[in-house]
Structures are given as structure tokens and as C-alpha cells.
Amino acid sequence: MNPTSAPAPHAIEVERLTKTYTIGTTVHAVDGVSLNVPHGSFTAVMGPSGSGKSTLMQLIGLLDAPTSGRLTVNGRDVEGLADEERTRLRGKEIGFVFQSFNLMPKLTVLGNVTLPMQFQGVAARERLRRAEELLARMGMSDRLHHKPNQLSGGERQRVAIARALANEPTLLLADEPTGNLDSRTGEEVLRLFAELHAQGYTIMLVTHERRVAERAERIVHMEDGRIQEIEALTAATPPPVAHGGRRDPANRRHAAEVLA
Q1: Residues 159, 113: contact at Cβ < 8 Å?
Q2: How far apart are CA 19 and CA 182, in angstroms?
Q3: What is the predicted pLDDT for the residue at 235?
Q4: Cα 60 to the chain's mean position, in Å?
């Protein structure tokens, strides 16, 4: 799917979304949140621990079901969808990048990237072609048969990003993607996200760090399960890129070489 050609006006529409847990006492992890995420936008969700930002991402990513409210993904209302339909929609439309990488330890780099395509019924030859292409873009062509425990943190996150793109989603959700990386490697991961945004992907990134959030076009500030402010940034802060613009293939190679 071309990430720039989805017909719905917004990639995500959230209306009065809530998520309530009752464990002795009632906790409103997400409390009446309304938010539209335009196609091709880069949104950061920022807040302290317990603010509800990760829970909101899990709801938007269809990893959990809301207690109440309305959620639309690419124009499709997810209320009432059967588990199988939610799984299919999540697998095709949404790519995930996590702080802890969440790679399968017994699979190779290539196996980790082809796995989500297998669940979507992609033919074996196409799985291999797409995975090799994505890993080449991430500078991982010489690591195809390595296991995750043979990779650095930066290399693992590059594999995780390639895996997130495997089913050609329109929306990328990243939960603290630089949280387990040193500052230099984290900067290179943010550069990769900037390149993906420039290519037309819709990105929602959860973070507690202002310097990370400022790479987005706007910051959604959360506290106590509610949106406190939506801060529009006059211009997303671009990461330093050698040799010119972000879309130059040579720049992607440069970023991949440093991200180790």
C-alpha cells in the first residue's frame, strides 16, 4: 500500500476515548481523549510516567480495546470488530516499533522481518524480496542470518523498524523507540523516522523526552489520562544529515553505518 494514498481524511480519529481499569480502585488510564491524526503527519505524544500516553498508543494500535469512545483507523470504525478482523486490520495498516525491540530471539534478522508478512499471507518469494530490500535500506544486508543477541542495540532497532514496514502499513507507532539506546544511536534512529516521514508515512511517537518530541510536527501533552495541550511546532527540528537532503539514498547509507 502506498502510504500517501489512503482515502480517509485522517489516519486516526479518536473521539472521547476512555480506558478504565479496576483493581481495588478505579484507574482512568485514558480519560475522554479526542484527537485526529492527519495522513502524513508526525505526532509526538509526551507526558510523565502514568500519564496514559502508552495506553493511548496501545488503543490506537488495536493492541487493547477501549472501555468507551470511538476509534477510526483509515476511515474504518473499529467498534464491534471481531478479534480476527482487528488482528487483520492491525497487521496490515499499522507498524509498531518498541523500546525493547521485541524481536524473536530464535529467529534470524531475515526471519524476524519476514514473519509478519507470513501472517498476512504474503507469498514466500515476495516476503524474501521485501525483507531483503527493507534490510538493505537499514544497512543490515550483512546481518541477514544473525540472531538478535548478536546485534548491537542500534542494529536491533533497525531490524525492528524494517519489521514494522514489512506489511507496507500507512501508520507507524513508536513507543519510546530511543529509550534503550545511547544518545548518538538514538539520534540516528530519529533520523530514520524523519526519512520515513518525508516519504509520506504517518508517525505517532510516544516519549517522555522533549528533545525527541521536538522532531515531530506537533506535541500532544498528556497528564492523568487526558490531553492537556496540543503544541504545534513551527517546524520539526531536523536531525543533522550529511551530504544534503533526507531523501538522498547516500544519506540513508550514512545513517545506517553510524547506527550500530
Answers
A1: yes
A2: 33
A3: 56
A4: 11
Calculate mean pLDDT across residues 128-152. 95
pLDDT of residue 33: 96
Task: Characterize 225-249 residue by residue with b for buried, 16 or more Cβ atoms within 10 angstroms of its Cβ, and e for exposed.
Answer: bebeeeeeeeeeeebebeeeebeee
Closest CA to 203 of 192, 84, 211, 120: 192
Residues contacting residue 154 through CB under 8 Å, at least 6 positions apart:
181, 185, 188, 189, 259, 260
Cα angle at 189 between 167 and 255, to 5 degrees? Answer: 100
Alpha carbon 207 to its chain centroid, in Å, reads 12
* Residue in this structure with the C-alpha cell 514496514, named with its chain if needed: 165
DSSP-derived letter for residue 234 is S
